Amino acid sequence: MAYKFQLGAAVMSGSLQQEEGITTTDFSGSGYIKAAGDLTTAGAVKFDGVADTAVAVGADSFYFKDADGQVKSDTLADYATAAAGPGLSAASGVYTVNVDDSGVELNADTLRLKDNGVTLAKMAGVTRGSLIVGDASGNPSYHALGTSTQFMISDGDDPVYRTMSGDATLGADGLLTISADAVHDTMLNDDVAVGLAGVGLSAASGVLAIEASGAVKVSSDKVGISGSFAGNGLSYGGGVDSISTLAVNVDGSGIEINSDTLRLKDNGVTLAKMAGITRGSIISGDASGDPQALAVGSAHQFLQSDGTDLAYVSMSGDATLAAGVLTISADAVHDGMVNDDVATGLAGDGLSAASGVLALDLSELSAAAIAVSADSFAFIDATDGSTKKESIADLVTAMAGGGLTATNGVLSVQSNDVATFADANATLAEGMNYGSASLTADRTLTLPAAPSVGDVIHVKAPASLGGFDLIIARGAGAHSIDGEASISLESNYGAVSLMYVAANLWKVW
After folding, report:
1. Superfamily for the 413-508 domain
2. E strand segments, 329-409
3. I need a surface site. Which of 54, 60, 135, 217 has the fewest CB within 10 A?
4. Distance CA 204, CA 192 (A)
5. CA of residue 488 relative to chain centroid, distance
6. How do the domains of the chain map onto residue ranges?
7. Angle at 231 between CA 226 and CA 233, to 5 degrees
8. Do 59 and 53 form a contact (C-beta atoms < 8 A)?
9. In sequence order, what are the residues at sequence separation of 6 or more whose Cβ sits closer than 8 angstroms to the Cβ of residue 83?
10. Euclidean distance between CA atoms 78 and 89, whole angstroms
């Protein structure tokens, strides 16, 4: 089989044996290949007399042995394209490093970080609240966040966090509180006097003075007449009656004179110098990047970012905000919102808590001696089913039926009580009643007006009735004593027992 090879301008032709490579046939002449041996054998091909020429990577070709054993050729451009791996691209045989041109760029055949190319997203993580500062070696380092209410200040070498003290303190909400009596005259800015200077007053270097104009002057703290016509904002040179020059007075803080020209001074426009702004408005940047006056929201609204601008919004939902006071809505706090430790914290004497649930536990109550005249107990009212309390003394009084009395929570058997009556009319008491003095006239002993069924009254006459009667009368008009309105004892040491057995009825025993 005949082959023809071309390398640059050199051409080799002749008869070669297929698969066995080039034979020992010599080809002579400038630029021709001299073959000796098999092309598959290293060193078998020699190039003699080939001209030294610059490679055209976009057009020149090279020879290679294909995987099928055949000798073939391809362009250097195609080889470069096939060999370009990640981060590289090839065009017309020339390799180029691929860069995104946002963080990394090529500059004069050199890779470099691009100006403004290291964005926040490209930076390594920073501990929350930390700042990146230069350390003592001039290297960047993390500066940890200070504790609550501290602020950053320079100590001359590094920024440090400090707690505000002295004449004022700083709260966590950014509220600066000046201490009582802490502000002295030397602490006041000169513009305080400016603000206080009303009609007839002026201020200079923080000192108020009577304002004079025209022919009026102030000299030695006295108001007098002057020949000077230099008014507000002007001063003069020379004597009061021989003015040589006039000059515009400037305070040097907000306005200054530069090359015989008045101008605003850098940092000279303080709040006091700014034009009026609607009460409550805040200066913020608008959509065009210009300052604007953001109007104050409605009462109780708070300022919130919507991701683009600041806006006033009202708090709603489970709570409302009014004048800084957060009010949780009625029925807004549900069981799922309350931590289990709330029940634990609420569980006092007589209560236990488990998994956020309170339970009545009387075993937890402290032991104490009961005071029946003062202590109370809890009970369920049968009227409305609610839990109420009542004193033990009232309970005992309510439970004392016929033949019993209750005093300060103590029960007593009434028939055992002893009372006396003298030479006078009296009201009988439940229990024993006896006369302690002789009678000098008929005397009436009246039964209780509101007895209880079972009440028993014993009456014993004195040693001497003196010839008079001891009359026992009913206590209420509807009552009777065995059908009578009254009975009488007529004998010395006479006695009678009566029991209230039914409504309006006393019986003699």
Report:
1. gp9 (2.60.120.640)
2. 351-354, 357-360, 376-380, 387-391, 404-407
3. 54
4. 10
5. 88
6. 359-391, 413-508
7. 140
8. no
9. 90
10. 12
